[in-house]
Amino acid sequence: MNFDFSCPVCGCGLTRAERTLKCENGHCFDLAKQGYVNLLQSQKSSAKRHGDDKLMVRSRFDFLNKGYYGRLAEIIVSKISSIAFPGMKLVDLGCGECYYTSIIAESFPEITVGGIDISKEALIAGSKRNRNISLAVASTFALPISDGFCNAVVSVFAPYSSDEVLRVLRKGGHFVRVYPLEKHLMGLKSLIYEKPYLNEVDLSVPAGFKISDRDELKYDIHIDSNEDIFSLFTMTPYYYKTGRSDQEKLKKTNFLNSEIEFGIDVLQKI
C-alpha cells in the first residue's frame, strides 16, 4: 500500500508487516488477498449491510464499463489536471468499484491514490481495476486518514462529511465533488414512476472552503439494451425504493433516452 492510512482505533499511523497493517499501539489489521484493508469499526454501526451489495456493484461495474459516463470521467481528469503535481496524495471517498479512481490513477501515475468505501464487495471489484490504488473499507464520515495528509479529495455521488474532508486536507488542498443536478436520470425515473421528481441540489459551500471552479455537464444517453437499462436501474438507490410492479416495467423495456446532468465543483481549503 502506498497511501498511508491511520489506525481507526487510536489515530496513529499504520505500517505494513507482511500481510497486516499495524500501529505503534499494537492495533493490527489484516490485508485481504485482494489487497484492501478493512478499517471499518463495525461495532459503531447497527447496520446489517454496509454499502452496496453484490448486485449493485456488478451492475455499476458492467454499466460504467460500457462508457455511458465516460464524458464525466474525462471532465474529472481535466479538473484534477489543473491541480495535480508529482507526489500529490489524493483519496476518492465512496470510490465503489473504482471506475473513476482507476482512471485518475492511470491518468496521473505521478500521484499517490487511495480509495475508501464502506462496501467490501465494492472494493473486491475495485481491486481488479488497478492494483496500485490503496483501498480501505471505512466510513466516509470517520476517515482513517491523519490530519492534513491529503492534497486532494474526490467524491463522485458519494456521501461525505465536509468536516472530515476539511480535516484530512492540507491548507490550500482541493476537494473535487460531483453531484446529480435536477433532471439527472429523469428519463429512467419517468419509466418507473407516475410522477417523477426532480433531484434536490445543494450548491452551498461548506465552511472552510472557497469555490475554485464550478462546472456542469449535461447530455442525453441512448440505451437500446434491456441488460444495460436494468444495470443502470439496479446500480442506483431507486432499485431498493421501487416496488415490484414498477420494477417489472423495466424488464419489458428495450430502449431508453434519459437526461444526464452532473455538477462538478472544485473547492479549495482556505
Describe the protein's architecture and organization:
This protein is of the alpha/beta class and 270 residues long. The two termini are 30 Å apart. The strands form 2 sheets. An 8-stranded mixed sheet has the order 4-7-6-5-8-9-11-10. Strands 1-2-3 form a 3-stranded antiparallel sheet, with no helix packed on it. The longest helix has 12 residues, at 54-65. It is built from 9 helices and 11 strands.
Strand content: 25-35%
Instruction: Label the overall shape.
Output: globular
The averaged pLDDT comes out at: 92
Strand order of the largest sheet: 4-7-6-5-8-9-11-10
The end-to-end span amounts to 30 Å
What order do the helices and strands follow? Answer: EEEEHHEHEHEEHEHEHHHE
By DSSP (H or I, 4+ residues per run), the number of helices equals: 9
Helix vs. strand class: alpha/beta
Give me the secondary-structure topology.
Blueprint lengths: L14 E3 L2 E3 L5 E3 L6 E2 L15 H12 L4 H12 L7 E5 L5 H9 L4 E6 L2 H7 L7 E4 L12 E7 L5 H7 E12 L5 H7 L16 E15 L2 H9 L3 H4 L2 H8 L4 E14 L1
Parallel strand pairs: 4-7, 5-6, 5-8, 6-7, 8-9
Antiparallel strand pairs: 1-2, 2-3, 9-11, 10-11
Helix pairs in contact: 1-7, 2-3
Offer a concise description of the structure.
The chain has 270 residues and is of the alpha/beta class.
Supply database-style keywords:
alpha/beta, 28% helix, 3-stranded antiparallel beta sheet, 8-stranded mixed beta sheet, 270 residues
